[in-house]
Amino acid sequence: MARSKKRWVYSRPKPHKSKVPESVKAEVEEKSSELIESTLKSNYIKPAPEDKRFNYVVDIYTKWHRNYFYFCAKYRSPGPNALSPYFETRFARMECVGGDEFNLSYMRHTGQWWEIYERLSLDECLEAIQRDPLFMADYPLLVDQLLTVAAKAWDSQMEACVNCPTRCISEK
Predict the structure, then answer these.
(1) Cα(30)–Cα(142) distance, rounded to whole angstroms?
(2) Lower Cβ count inside 10 Å, N or C end of the chain?
(3) Which helix (H) or strand (E) covers residue 24, if one does?
(4) Considering only CA atoms, which of 134, 89, 94, 133 is closest in space to residue 111?
(5) Residue 40 burial by CB count (10 A; 0-12/13-18/19+): exposed, middle or buried?
């Protein structure tokens, strides 16, 4: 069977996204910093946990990158196996689509952005970030808590193994 020949095909250039006006940037930064200081930091930044194996939120901040405005959380990793003492995660993204309209996305557990709201005003975006559980800044903390519960359950099951602690749990 003969192979088909490769062909060049014209591809139209993607439309260039316009830059976000400085006035919109300033308004977004001002209102989002109010939300962070009044609500998000008090809800998500807690004292360091006693168990040093787990990460915890130490700061919440924002930053612009092109047409995207990100809400970020900075975590502390005090554990002995930590690759770095701190790391950053982005948990919400607002894409400026024109004027005072934004598309709002959250970061899925897969590492992909998932757009759930389209063409919202700035105030509607900030309200959604505040009330919607998909925009939790402490998602890794939730995972750590679930793993802690699972570890405690495993330890309680292993306490039953007095003679042979390495025996399979399914034999009990």
Answers:
(1) 29
(2) N
(3) helix 22-35
(4) 89
(5) buried
Q: What is the pLDDT of residues 40-66, one digit of tens each?
A: 998 889 888 888 878 889 999 999 999
Question: Lowest-confidence range among 52-56, 112-116, 117-121, 133-137?
Answer: 133-137
Tokens of 129: 């970030």
DSSP 86: E
The number of folded domains in the chain is 1
| Average of per-residue pLDDT across 144-153 | 69
Task: Tell me the one-letter amino acid at 99.
Answer: G
Instruction: Give the range of the structural domain holding residue 62, as residue numbers without chain letter.
Output: 39-45+54-138
Q: At what angle do helices 22-35 and 122-131 cross, to 10 degrees?
A: 30
**11: helix, strand or coil:** coil
